[in-house]
Amino acid sequence: MYYSTHYTSPVGDILLVSDENSIIGLWIGEQKYMEKTMPHDIIAKDDLPVLQEGVAWLDDYFAGKKPKLSRLSLAPTGSEFQQQVWRILTEIPYGELTTYGKIAKEVAQRMGKARMSAQAVGGAVGHNPISIIIPCHRVVGANGSLTGYGGGMEKKIKLLEHEEVDMTGLFVPKKGTAL
After folding, report:
1. Angle of helix 118-126 versus helix 100-110 axis, rounded to 10
2. Does the pLDDT value for residue 112 go beyond 90?
3. Class of domain 80-162
4. Checking DSSP bridges between strand 139-140 and strand 98-99, what pairing results, if any?
């Protein structure tokens, strides 16, 4: 059984979902891949403690308090590869950026492989089911491209500005599959 609560944020309406013990999803509006990553049969339950803690975390985040991920129980569903990528995303500090290529090198090292495709990493980042909390918005292209946010480019920019990221050298690509 899955439970949810809604949260109104500066970047739009958020649906926070739990399996009762852990947060399994956070979706902003009608974001990309939502249908593929969101469970069905969700019951609204605003008073569930794990969801209340998620709401408190979001309150702190949007108040600029840089909340710790360790206070939340997270359980995103995905392959071993996706789990590795998502773990690395949780290690990106508030207000800092990394690239798909750097994550690919780290995943390869952790999985004992010679190399890993940055495009494969991009796919895993794009299918992150717990947006904002697992900070996929902090990943950019090696050339400074802001491509690759399932919630939409406008939301990615708002989140980075909220975290006071230095936007110098970053740009929105003119075309691409992840816009």
Report:
1. 100
2. yes
3. mainly alpha
4. parallel
Amino acid at 125: V
Residues 6+ apart with CB under 8 A from 93: none
Domain boundaries, the chain: 2-71, 80-162
Whether domain 2-71 has CATH 3.30.160.70: the reply is yes
Lowest average pLDDT, out of 32-36, 133-137, 140-144, 166-170, goes to 32-36
Mean pLDDT value of segment 67-83: 95
- DSSP assignment, residue 70? G
Rounded to 5°, angle at Cα 62 from 57 and 63: 95
For residue 147 the two structure tokens come to: 């491509």
Contacts made by residues 77-86, CB under 8 angstroms, sequence distance 24+: 77/24, 77/37, 77/129, 78/124, 78/127, 78/129, 81/107, 81/111, 81/120, 81/124, 82/124, 82/127, 84/110, 84/111, 85/121, 85/124, 85/125, 85/128, 86/124, 86/128, 86/130, 86/134
Instruction: Give every CB contact of residue 117 below 8 A, 6+ residues apart in sequence.
Output: 104
Looking at the annotation, which residues are catalytic? 136
Residue 119's CB: how many other CB atoms inside 10 A?
Answer: 9
